[in-house]
From TrEMBL:
Membrane in keyword set: yes
Official protein name in the record: Zinc-ribbon domain-containing protein
Membrane-spanning residues: 39-57, 63-84
Organism: Dechloromonas denitrificans
UniProt keyword annotations, A-Z: Membrane, Transmembrane, Transmembrane helix
Domain of life of the source: Bacteria
Length: 91
């Protein structure tokens, strides 16, 4: 089997071309660091609309629930995106 990118021979059971990716391996520390970074960015992005909602509408029952769930959702999304991006950077 040949690599579509570099044209060199690739073992049939290989997921990635060893010639294009080199010997780099993703460490757990790199993946965790990417997840933490993504989670923090997501948390910051989620806190801004939550604070704006609380400022404009006050702590009404429905608004408070939306304001508290928004940072949680954006943190979780950022965490997942950060983990996936950190893993993909080493391909």
């Amino acid at each position: 089997m040949q690599c579509a990118k570099c044209g060199l021979e690739v073992p049939a059971d290989a997921i990635y071309c060893p010639h294009c990716t080199g010997e780099r391996k993703t460490t757990d520390r790199d993946v965790i660091r990417g997840g933490i970074k993504g989670g923090l960015i997501g948390l910051l992005i989620g806190l801004l609309p939550a604070l704006v909602l609380l400022y404009i509408y006050g702590a009404e029952r429905g608004i408070k629930a939306i304001a508290f769930i928004t940072p949680f959702i954006t943190f979780t999304t950022g965490l997942i995106i950060g983990l996936v991006k950190a893993k993909r950077d080493w391909k």
